[in-house]
Amino acid sequence: MLSRILRRLGWAAVILWGTTVITFLIVHAVPADPVRVYAGANADAETIERIRAEMGFDDPLIVQYGRYIGNLLRGDLGTSLVTGERVLDALLARFPVTLSLALTAVCLWMLMSVPLGVLTAKYRGRAIDRTVLIVSLVAISLPVFWLARMLQYYLAYQTGLFPVGGWAGWTHIILPAATLALVITGYYARLVHTNMVEVLNADYVRVARAKGIPEYVVLFKHGLRNAVIPVITVLGLDMAALMGGVVFTENVFALPGLGVLALQSVFNLDVPMIMGVVLFSAAMVVCANIVVDFLYMWIDPRVEGM
Amino acid sequence: MNGTQAQQSAALHSTFEAASGPLLWASVCLTVLFLAVSCSGDAPPSRLHPEENVLRIAVPSDPRSLDPAIAYDVVTWPLVRALFHGLVDYDDDLNLVPWHARSWTISEDGRTITFKLRQDIHFSNGRPITSGDFAWSLERILDPATKSPGQGFYRNIAGARAFQDGSADRVTGLRTPDSETLVIELAHPDLPFLYCMAMPFAYAVPREEVERRGETFGRHPVGAGPFVLADWQRGTRMRLEKRPSYYRADEVRLEAIELMVGGDETLHMMMFERGELDIASVTSTGIPDADFIRVMKDPVLSQRVAHQPLNAIQYLSMNTEMAPFDHVDVRRAVNHAIDRQRIVSLISDRGILARGVLPPGMPGYNEELEGYDHDPEKARSLLANAGYPEGFTTELMITAQSGIDTKIGQAVQQDLGEVGITVEIRPVTGSTRIEATGRRGAVPFSTFGWYQDYPDPSNFLDVLLNGNRITEVNSTNVAFYDNASVNALLNEASTSTDREHRLALYREAERLVVEDAPWVFLYYPQMYLLRQPWLKGLKLNPVWPIRYELMWIEP
What angle do the packed helices A271-299 and A225-253 form, to 10 degrees? Predict the structure, then answer.
């Protein structure tokens, strides 16, 4: 068990190091000049060169990378070129917003997709199954930013039921989380459905039914518990995809989370901030996968021996 | 199954009972139905917080810094102006008037400016401001460690270059004989330098606060302006509150300015229409592209629109060092081929047709310039003269995120296609375009916009078209236009101290530029601002479209 944990952490470190290399190369391969972005379109050439020297951008790339990694190992993610804010402070200030958005979204879609999956598995082939299938397909195909704008327009702007945007309390998280949840629920409902169908055909379910155990106990205790294991795995993998959705949703609803920070730092070519956001998100995805891994062991004891 | 597992199973079970599938689904459907029915017509917007004299606005992202040495964009400058105080300011006709300076004199040779300062003004930390504060603030701009984007405007102060290179530890041209006198000595005569003193870079900052805060002074600004920063939660909100100890506090009527940070123009428009914002957008966009026609046709909203021609120009730059644009007839042909009137109507008439370089609000504007009319026939014959009877193929670089650039690009592509010039549009990010076009020999043809730093023709002609300004990278002369006669006129004008003579020189230089056609002169943009009827005191001018200290709310 211990060696397994150590192995996972070792790989996590390798993945994060790789992330720094790739991000660093990409940021510096962009055919644009961070100093020019900082100094503005009206600045003259001499001003730009003086600021470049002051920011240390005239050093060779490998020197700049060495400096970055050296600071990183001491826990220093650098300072924003644009705002002078410490990158770690900016990330920690934004993280709670993104985390609450992601967690609310996950809760919403699990609450919707599991019952739907069970229901459609129980009544497979019937009208409700087909309706849910069609609705799911449509929902999966919706672009997140479009759905976000639609919900914002109809549920917030037109009716005033929700705030149209900004961040001032928990009511501001409902529509953005619902946006993410609506797009993803259909997919998870199908996932639960497929696994349930398989499980419900298993011998032990037939035995359980033969023993006269009430149907809801069969469905939820014998069926769902086994059907949900692969769903948890996929959930871990989906954390990365969720980050993508978060960028769009946060920007549409003006939530001050990591997604907005990511987009703004890219527009500003704020190199330390871009590096910080990417590294932080990568660390989150790696963590989520480790957690899922152990969650998986806990739900299904057979995994531990593997 | 052991005990723990049974408990977990029971917990799962009860969760699912509570949110049983069909019930949940039915309630979702009902909610949607209810909402669809309740979407009735538009209620007239009313102010969300009617009692407060607080201006509510929104900005798409955090200002990078409220430090006057760093801030350099149209959204942040009005905030810096609300927090700090400068020596000179503009009146409504764009003349320079005393502000913190009671008066100033310029020596015969135009090289020495002497400011006499008011003695009754304090920083918000209570300390009185002296001439030493202005001198130190200017020196701070020039200090390379400050990384000020505005340092170029003050490099003409005597001794500035030595100070920047580290060979002097003071700027010798900045002298303070006493606490109310500031003497600025220039390396060479420079009439527009006074305009630089009206830019926010030159506002006074208190040395003790800057040294205490270091790099974070821009987050914790302390100045002498009518407002102080009360709160700034990054990415969320900012609040400026009126400063009762401001020396003209009785003239400031707003209690506070509340900024929402974040969201795009579409979101801000929705908030405006719901009465949550007092101005739809304080960015140069003013009214979102997608909403512009609807707003202007709406009988209620259109009454709330204010507009102001800006001292700015939208143009296409042709790189005069790169074939085929190195041939003057090709550049003239392109000017004749493009229907600029159509481009102006494509942007819903939010611009004034350009015939030359200088916009109408700029001193030296020449309304007699003829420019180039739309004449494809003439364009074809000019192309034939230049040796391109069959036309040629070129690439137009545009900013991908800009809707206006896309419209311009398509119109240009079509118009030039009619005379045989094939244009391939190359959309790139704004930062890539600026970097690439400033590099010598890199980009033949690109869209460009220029917004003034100060209302003097030198800020257009000298910066953008003087051949002596050409650099290998980061050139501001992106047409790489180098005409010896134009350079001579511009150089003479830049050191002349006779205002009328200077303007005559600039007019002549502009005439030669138009003849040489290094640009396609498209239009002078106008700013549109959408504000609520209860917002008073909005006085637009081309230098300061937004002045918060003049505004108030009257429900």
Answer: 160
